[in-house]
Amino acid sequence: MKRKALTDFEWRVLAATLTIPLGETRSYQWVARRVGRPQAVRAVGQALKKNPYPLIIPCHRVIKADGRIGGYAGRFSGKKIRLLRQEQEIVRAFEKMTESGKKAAARGRHPGSNNS
Fold first, then answer.
1. How many CB atoms lie within 10 A of CB 14?
2. 59 part of the active site
3. Which comes out higher in pLDDT, residue 82 or 110?
4. Whole-number mean pLDDT of the chain?
5. Are 25 and 84 within 8 A, CB to CB?
6. Which of the following is catalytic: 31, 57, 59, 63?
7. The domain 3-106: what is its CATH number?
8. Which residues share a beta bridge with 75?
9. Helices and strands: H and E segment counts in the chain
């Protein structure tokens, strides 16, 4: 999809969505406020539906204000839940690796080395 196929508002919605950290979610309302249009909650959903780069722009991280998942690309398929769970597993794995690295550094060891 060419850039000019989306409106400035839609590109701002996608840009705001890019700021949502891995494994976390934000509401459609949060995105609407972030782009300066707090009443445009439905328009945010429509903009996300047009996301031309779903592998890069994580529209699956945007959920309803009440915490429910809602649809994904206009329909509910469970894909959004699976993507979010997978991201949360990745975050936990990185936190574990980071924590073990900190412990090793505190003991004067380099993570992954066989120094005793």
1. 22
2. yes
3. 82
4. 85
5. yes
6. 59
7. 1.10.10.10
8. 72
9. 4, 2
